[in-house]
Amino acid sequence: MTDNTLIPGVKSGRLAPQEYAENFADLHPPLDAHEALVAADRCYFCYDAPCITACPTDIDIPLFIRQIATGTPEAAAETILSQNILGGMCARVCPTETLCEEACVREAAEGKPVLIGQLQRYATDTIMEKAVHPFSRADATGKRVAVVGAGPAGLACAHRLAMHGHDVTLYDARSKLGGLNEFGIAAYKTIDSFAEREVDWLLQIGGISVKAGQKLGQDVSLEHLKSDFDAVFLGVGLGGVNALGLDHEDKEGVEDAVNFISGLRQAKDLSNLPIGRDVVVIGGGMTAIDAAVQAKLLGALNVTLVYRRGRDRMNASRFEQDLAASKGVRIITNASPIALHGNGAVREIEFEYTNDDLTPTGQTFRLAADQVFKAIGQTLSDDDLPDLDGRKIAVTGPGRTSVPGVWAGGDCAAGGDDLTVIAVAEGRDAAEDIHATLVPRT
Amino acid sequence: MADLSSNFAGIKSPNPFWLASAPPTDKEYNVRRAFDAGWGGVVWKTLGEDGPPIVNVNGPRYGAIWGADRRLLGLNNIELITDRPLQVNLDEMTRVKKDYPDRALVASLMVPVDEDSWKSILDRVLETGCDGVELNFGCPHGMSERGMGSAVGQVPDYVQQVTEWCKKHSNLPVIVKLTPNITDIRKPAQAAHDGGADAVSLINTINSITSVNLDSFAPEPTIDGKGAHGGYCGPAVKPIALNMVAEIARSPSLQGLPISGIGGITTWRDAAEFMSLGAGNVQVCTAAMTYGFKIVQEMISGLSQYMDEKAFTSVDEIVGRAVPNCSDWQHLNLNYVTKARIDQDLCIKCGRCYAACEDTSHQAISMTPDRVFDVIDAECVACNLCVNVCPVEGCITMEELAPGVVDERTGKTVEKEYVNWTTHPNNPGSCAAE
Fold first, then answer.
1. Does A112 reach chain B within 8 Å, measured CB to CB?
2. Over the stretch A44-81, which tens digit does the pLDDT of each residue have?
3. Do B348 and A49 touch (CB under 8 A)?
4. How far is CA B268 from its chain centroid?
5. Cβ–Cβ contact B406 with A under 8 A
6. Are A412 and A392 within 8 A, CB to CB?
7. In angstroms, rounded to a whole number, what is the distance separating the alpha carbons of residues A253 and A279?
8. Which helix (H) or strand (E) holds B381?
9. For residues A413-442, b (16+ Cβ closer than 10 Å) or e, as one string?
10. What is the structure's pLDDT at B40?
11. Which among A124, A286, B14, B193 counts the fewest CB atoms within 10 Å?
12. Is the pLDDT of residue B382 over 60?
């Protein structure tokens, strides 16, 4: 405890300097070579392996693990990256416990799956540390494709298109590429500027010209892109944040969790980052967990995550929930916010308990709150888009939108969970479809 | 606690676990530690003729192969016999035997193939008070290039000749240590027997190169860029050794010849297996070199528990118990029909049985879209490969078809009678029992 621990309000420097480094160190320290061999040896090399089926990008997991086991992690990395060019980031952020590792037969057998995520990181780290880019471009096709949004979907799409010999122009509204890899996701999952390094490594393929700071609908129009390029891919993500729908939501201290996280990710010095003494996070997904855990790691005294449904309905995996609990985050379920209190800045937030079907029970409680982070979902913020399906861009097949020549993928497109790995799969598959459309097989 | 005391070819020891002649038994210091740890006997590191000491290489003497977690599976060595002066070894042996009178102390010997050399060293060794001698006709590296070790063991006439000399010039039990680097182990064993040997011990190490360095393209272990074959030992050689022990144990002309079993013995269970195939006692080296002398405590407690569970009162009750069941292929019952059975509750759906059977065997396992694996009796030849590759113990078993049941693969009713190849109609040399 430091002198600043108990000070109310939103304040920076709550921790001793070294505590910031300790708190934001690598969540899972990388496997060393021997650990990787031992972990790889546990793989049974299953026939038609369930882990491959469970992977949204269909990585040949038994093959890459066998390649690690036989001392060729570079070949393992190529196996991974040929399916998932952001295999390095996915190794860090994938909820493996609900994907490949849940499907692992050793999870069924012993409750101890092969450490697929950590082995994937071992392989991809090996090749990236050597600054090797194992892919090269096919002969130029003369076709030009615009990719809008340099998050996981856009990056995967751009890379695959460039590989096929197309010339890609990659737009992003922000000045820095990476999308949620760079601006979302908890810092302890992607330390040492990994997102930035991965983008630089990916761009080594060549044939991708970057136009950063160009927002669709403002700096560039879909109509313009359609006429200038042979095809367009939209991977713009979800720029907006859902509101709580309460009075006084503009009170000081009430913030979007994604803004808190992106500010933290871009902070040069975490000790300059102000955090409340009492923090309340509203939501039940990965963003809510990332915000709550990082608030705690920044030195908040009390962090409470409040979710309106039961724990089994939370989008955050059990592993993430347990991680939050282990860091001291209190999780309250079956409670909805009904009022924000405070004279000027928020001081308290009031909740009402709800039944599993969200029926209010009439029982209320208040939590002290210097800061309230809203993490109840994101929404499309762009205009100038193809037809929507509900609140996202409608797509058929591999990302075809209502507008001919325009594809979409990632969080902005309808269907599929909003996961990095799914965005990569959608971007990659759209690229293949664009390629097949632009260069029909003879 | 069962009585583990052993009497091997007249050599008594408190248990049947001896350390084999090898680096662990090269010095008084080591041997005292071994006896203090509980080893029943020690075969001292091989002594050579008096004179200028043996010279060893000054680079790596051992090469190894490992499992994934560096578990040592096989070891190879190019170390020669003891490189210490003969008299030093003899003096140490004398002191050790005096201090550990209840333990077996056997001298391993290797000198050139002439009677004087053997008589001379036997005279010296007798003075130590040791309990017996072991003739090293096994080491396949180095000394064999000089006409000793396996170079002798590979020529039955030499084996017999030297054995006769040793029996003639000493009254100690003579154990002949055999090399496995030979086509038929029964031939040198017979030669030893004919020469009057009191026992044989086997196996010595197997000619081997453990690996090749793919950067320098040199075999391991590498001495200044070159390698020479070494002698292979450790858990990996156990199946080879078991078979050779059994071959001798079931050979009619070798009945009654005591066998000291050697080759990858690491646990009490390994030891019991060797003994059941006819070994009167066992010798251990690699396991001690890997884990230290303390492993003998597990061997003692494990064998004791096993004997208590089986109500065996003497280790001799284990010796040879499996030998009558060692047969020839031609005598195996062709009316014994089994089928693989998969326990669906234990199955973890890895599909290894399916891959193995579909790709490399008889397409006798089916797979549904939701990964249920089942045996197709009409295709299953009961090869056992699925059992061997299944990672879950007990999940796949081979179940016998009872007489009267129809084998779906052959369409024939399983017969109760024992029949074998010798009388089978497809055998051109069959002599039908009429």
1. no
2. 999 999 999 999 999 999 999 999 999 999 999 999 99
3. no
4. 13
5. no
6. yes
7. 9
8. none
9. beebebbbbbbbbbbbbbbebbbeebeeee
10. 98
11. B14
12. yes
Give percent above pLDDT 70 in chain B: 99
Which residues of chain A lie closer than 8 angstroms to B67, CB-CB? 41
CA distance B52 to B134: 22
Closest chain B C-alpha to A46 CA, distance in angstroms: 5
**Two structure tokens written together for A257:** 């969790």
- Whether B391 and chain A come into contact, CB under 8 Å, resolves to yes
Number of Cβ within 10 Å of residue B139's Cβ equals: 30
Per-residue pLDDT tens digits for A288-345: 999 999 999 999 999 999 999 999 999 999 999 999 999 999 999 999 999 999 998 9
How far is residue B258's CA from residue B201's CA, in Å, rounded to a whole number? 8
Mind telling me how many Å the CA of A322 is from chain B's nearest CA? 27
Asked if the Cβ–Cβ distance from A50 to B69 is below 8 Å, we say no
Cα torsion through A321, A323, A324, A327, rounded to 10: 160
Query: What are the pLDDT digits (tens) for B226-263?
Result: 999 999 999 999 999 999 999 999 999 999 999 999 99
- Report yes or no: B192 and B160 within 8 Å, Cβ to Cβ: yes
pLDDT at B68: 78
Contacts of A192 (CB under 8 A, 6+ apart): none
Rg (CA), chain B: 25
Q: B357 to chain A: nearest residue by CA?
A: A47
In the predicted structure, residue B431 carries a pLDDT above the cut 80? no
Q: Round to whole Å and give the CA distance between A298 and A438.
A: 50
What pLDDT shows up at residue A382?
75
pLDDT at site A384: 83
Give the torsion through C-alpha atoms of A367, A372, A373, A375, to 10 deg. Answer: 50
Q: What is the ipTM of this complex?
A: 0.86
Closest-CA distance of chain A to residue B212, Å: 15
CA angle A203, A205, A209 (to 5 degrees): 55
Measured distance CA(B398)–CA(B417) in Å, rounded = 20
Contacting residues for B6 by C-beta, under 8 A, at least 6 apart: B12, B13, B14, B15, B16, B40, B280, B281, B315
pLDDT surpassing 70 at residue B434:
no
Q: Which of A278, A332, A289 is nearest to A308 (CA)?
A: A332
Q: Which residue has the tokens 């090869």?
A: B383
Name residues whose C-beta falls within 8 Å of residue B292's C-beta, 6 or more positions apart in sequence.
none
What stretches of B170-218 show up as alpha helix (H) in DSSP? Answer: 186-194
> pLDDT tens for residues B29-44?
999 999 999 999 999 9
Take residue A393 and report the two structure tokens written for it: 């861009």
Task: Name residues of chain A where pLDDT drops below 50.
Answer: none
DSSP labels, A305-347: EEESS-GGG-SS-HHHHHHHHHTT-EEEESEEEEEEE-SSB--
B415 band by pLDDT with thresholds 50, 70 and 90: very high
Contact A177, A170 (CB under 8 A): yes
Q: Please check whether residue A89 is in contact with residue A192, taking contact to mean a CB–CB distance below 8 angstroms.
A: no
SS3 A411: helix
- As a whole number of angstroms, the distance between CA B287 and CA B75 comes to 10
DSSP H helices in B292-397:
295-310, 352-360, 385-389
Secondary structure (3-state) at B291: helix
Contact A398, A231 (CB under 8 A): no
Whole-angstrom Cα distance, residue A399 to residue A231? 12
| B393/B343 Cα distance (integer angstroms) | 11
Please name the residue that has the structure tokens 């079956």. A334
